[in-house]
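hey so i finally got around to running the thing on that chain from the lab meeting. sorry it took forever, my laptop kept dying and i had to restart like 3 times. anyway pasting the input first so we r on the same page abt which one it is
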Amino acid sequence: MDKKNIFLGVVVYLFSVVISYLVFAGIGIGGSITSPVPSATKDASGKSVFDDSLPKTESCPLNGVKYSKQQRKWWESHSPLGIMIENHKEARPQSGLVGSDIIYEAVAEGGITRFLAVFYCQDAGIVGPVRSARTYFLDYISEYGDNPLYAHVGGANTSGPADALSQIEKYGWQSYNDLNQFSIGYPTFVRNANRVGRDVATEHTMETTTEALWEVAADRDWTNIAPERKLGRLTVGGDDWNDTYKGWSFQDEVPEKGTTSNISYEFWEGWSDYGVEWQYAPETNTYKRILAGEPHIDLNNDKQIQASNVIVLLTTEKGPIDELKHMLYTTTGTGNALIFMNGDVVKATWSKPTRESELSFTDRKGEEIEFARGLTWISVADTTTEVTY
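ok and heres what got predicted. didnt touch it at all, straight out
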């Protein structure tokens, strides 16, 4: 072998050594060091725990809050999860609301409101009390990509337009995202008769955890990837849940704060037990929720619920429409909304062309609203609702 071939052989060898070092040492070609993203750990209760000292660089797709790469790695392993949570006086305080990303509120029956809490970027731990499905909440959870998980305890099943269980069957959700307690049971769902430290009726006792529900979904292969399923002669699915999800836009800087400091409204006039107030806290740029004249507290941590954005979505309310006092709301089309953020109010227009379309908001100039980063609370109320601010 001549000297030229020996030289070339040495060069190739040294090049391969350098490349191997770069790859296995985690050093990029540009010289930057890339550390592997650590996995989340779990506490004694099974709740995912994240290293709070890591840089907050990753924006939650649902509400814009910045979290670490570690937390993003965790949330990308599952799909958004909507859980029905009741608001009867005997159900308070609820568990897990402060761990949600977005919350929808509307009357379920008899002036009593109910929540659809949507979880994705946080592990809320215990959530409850979980209650039954309602048709309009199905419309709102439908906008979170191809396979939004939906957890509930049964649902309205009276024949007619409020028959939520029939609609779930019609949508084919049993095959890829329906987490009905009737088909799952213990230990994912647990009756906790002493959840609030006093005796309450059985319907106010059902609890679950976000982690347990995501584990059920994973066991059924309902992760962040939509499973293939048959729709007529077509096979669809197989994509990330958010391949078609656009989401809202969020502010990178807090604008000058306004002076709209107190908001109040009742869903049904005279039903003060479900009347809501929001008090603006400039120091945190959030609105503290007051329910029936008292701070609305989360049982998990005794913290008052605070939202960065409070939306009063005005639409047509209809009902009661049957002997069980079920309600209906117009969820698609367009309408007016009041958006409270940064201590100010924006008179906006909401739009949702179809059940699966994302709810969007524009200002009077027709420009898309940029929201504050943080929990967004959407109160769905009749167009006649009086909002004081």
